[in-house]
Design goal:
alpha/beta; TIM Barrel; 8-stranded parallel beta barrel; 11 helices; 8 strands; about 45% helix; about 15% strand
């Protein structure tokens, strides 16, 4: 069939429509990125009723959850029961937060088993004591690579979650740069926005400097008001969320967002609900 050339009128009409079409595609891509809750946000409620808390979070509209430290004490049967709940609710656990010890020879097999049951993709080291030298941070990077090697055959990946210490200069260099430079490209750099801002760093610049490695972001806001700090509700702090989302989705490698809250002027579950509502409003206004 011959191809009919576009008339000038058709071309101009297509030129007008195209930007809106591309905008629609971009919007659809953004809306397909799941948003979840780091369950540390509802830690007191979770400790009293794990299944009930996960059900309440799913009812709000969260699409995934991230279990933190205490999950490691579960038996495999407890993990299987939680997986049943997740499947019933139609939500996912893409990652868990872990102490560094969970990657040790004595504990890594249990971490592997629990994460495989939960359906996780990333086993994230959530904390490391600040190191006084860059060599100490380099050794941390080496340990992350070693853990990645151990979990690779099970199709689990390793991640690292920053706090403010990783942005503070040690011997003239920020530890987070050492971690990024000395870990394998498949080690996720899970970016905590709030602690990045508190340390005076720029999350957008960091995302752009590490393309394809920011697979998840902790959407935690921060206020310079010392009476508020991390207790600010999503969208009420210093974070430029639109710029952060743009960077994450235009090369950062984002796969899912996680809202995290360290407390607020509201009860835990209400805080989680308010944060999700504010997140959706921000996304709708992009």
């Amino acid at each position: 069939m011959p191809i009919t050339p576009l008339s000038r009128r058709s071309f101009l009409a297509a030129s007008v429509v195209a930007p809106f079409a591309f905008r629609g595609i971009a919007s659809a891509a953004a809306s397909s990125i799941p948003v979840g809750l780091e369950l540390y946000s509802v830690r007191d409620t979770l400790a009293k009723d794990p299944e009930g808390t996960v059900r309440a979070v799913a009812k709000m509209g969260y699409q995934c959850v991230e279990f933190y430290g205490p999950y490691f004490e579960w038996t495999t049967d407890q993990a299987k029961q939680m997986r049943k709940v997740l499947d019933e609710l139609g939500i996912h656990c893409y990652s868990t937060h872990n102490d560094g010890e969970n990657f040790s020879d004595a504990k890594i097999s249990h971490a592997r088993d629990l994460n495989l049951i939960l359906g996780s993709k990333y086993v994230v080291q959530a904390w490391s004591d600040p190191k006084p030298t860059l060599d100490g941070w380099k050794k941390l990077a080496d340990s992350l690579n070693a853990a990645a090697d151990k979990l690779k055959s099970d199709r689990l990946k390793v991640g690292y979650h920053n706090h403010d210490a990783e942005w503070k200069l040690v011997e003239g260099k920020s530890p987070i740069e050492v971690i990024a430079a000395n870990t394998r490209p498949d080690v996720m750099l899970q970016l905590d926005i709030g602690t990045c801002l508190e340390a005076g760093a720029d999350p957008v610049s960091w995302i752009k400097a590490n393309p394809g490695r920011i697979h998840s972001i902790h959407c935690k806001d921060w206020s310079p008001d010392p009476n508020v700090a991390y207790k600010t509700i999503f969208g009420e702090g210093k974070a430029d969320w639109k710029a952060i989302f743009q960077a994450a989705e235009s090369g950062g490698g984002i796969e899912y967002y996680l809202i995290e809250q360290e407390g607020s002027r509201f009860p835990e579950l209400e805080t989680a609900k308010r944060c999700l509502e504010a997140y959706r409003q921000t996304r709708a206004g992009r």
